[in-house]
Amino acid sequence: MAEFALDPALIYLNHAAVAPWPQSTVAAVEAFARENGLHGSQNYPHWLAKESSLRQLMAQLINAPNAEDIALLKSTSEGLSFVAYGLTWQAGDNIVSIAQEFPSNRIVWQSLQNQGVEVRLLDLAGSEQPEKDLLALCDSRTKLLSVSSIQYASGRRMQLEPLGDYCQARDIVFVVDAIQSLGAMPFDVQSCQADVVVADGHKWMLGPEGLALFYCRPALREQLKLNEYGWHMVEEVGDFDQTEWQAAESARRFECGSPNMLGVHALHNSLSLLLNQGLDEVATAIQRLTDFTIDQVDANHYQLITPRASDQRGGIVTFIVPDQDNQLLYQSLMEQGVMCAYRGGGIRFSPHFYNTQEQITAAFKQLKVLL
Ligand SMILES: Cc1ncc(COP(=O)(O)O)c(C=O)c1O
């Protein structure tokens, strides 16, 4: 696919880490750089229109009712921190999550322990039905439940709807770290009833690091205490002479200062590309590739860590080569140009829709050579 013109020496199966940019995104960034060099911020109104359009694309991506519900933050970790330090906690409140979550979605909750908040972590290793087991950890003092839509190491996709149903019925704040889903498959914040959805743009969304989508249900937004202040988060933005101010009603209240316009131009292009392609089509292509990857794992008698059922996974396939140092194998694969990751004790392949079966075959061939 012409949009992906990677160095032919690479086989890029690492979209669950940091993705390469499409060529049109490279061009958008180059054009933005040239514009800055020639005209400075003369076209700032156009940049603002691009920023506003990005919010619309993000709303479309997660089926948010309103683009005003979306803030542009710098990372997933920042969004999770805004929730943790926006809520008011009482000693004895508890938070339910998963032990194997990416550290950003664990450390932030554990940081509340010095306020007497208990963090209850489900060990996925011993869980046949994680959704059921997560809910079994909840009680009348559970104030928040936080999961990744797809686990970064095992690749397990969580069934979000039953979690959302349960949380809504009990007034538990339901937080979804969707970084391993958005851009790889359709996502519907309304059907899963998440109160918060957060995801940085540098993985499946094919954007740069440092620009994240943060959705917060309006009713919760009003409850969250703000912890960052500045000119950009007030209702009357741009009226610098005004001495009275109030926080913006929209999710812009979480954006304290100047926007990341370079990131906006890049992510706008990458998201447009994915949405034009169609997330259903993207997801189907990824599933074909991950099915094929699992066939290769089986054919080589490697041990699959990712759940086999197609509705329990997304773009991640993690596996162990038995009786081998898998970390060393991963390092050797990387040296040979097979871009992958070592996660959860295994080798993680995460192909995006433009990868080919030939590339995956070649990656496994390389692995065999190394063995
Ligand atoms: C599940 C998950 N959450 C969050 C992140 C990254 O967080 P941040 O956007 O804060 O860098 C990753 C990156 O690997 C991840 O896999």
Automatic annotation (TrEMBL):
Domain Aminotransferase class V: 11-361
GO molecular function, one term: transaminase activity
UniProt key word Cytoplasm: no
Keywords assigned by UniProt, alphabetized: Aminotransferase, Pyridoxal phosphate, Transferase
Protein name as catalogued: Class V aminotransferase
SUPFAM superfamilies: PLP-dependent transferases
Pfam families: Aminotran_5
InterPro entries in the record: Aminotrans_V_dom, PyrdxlP-dep_Trfase, PyrdxlP-dep_Trfase_major, PyrdxlP-dep_Trfase_small
Protein species of origin: Candidatus Thiodiazotropha endoloripes
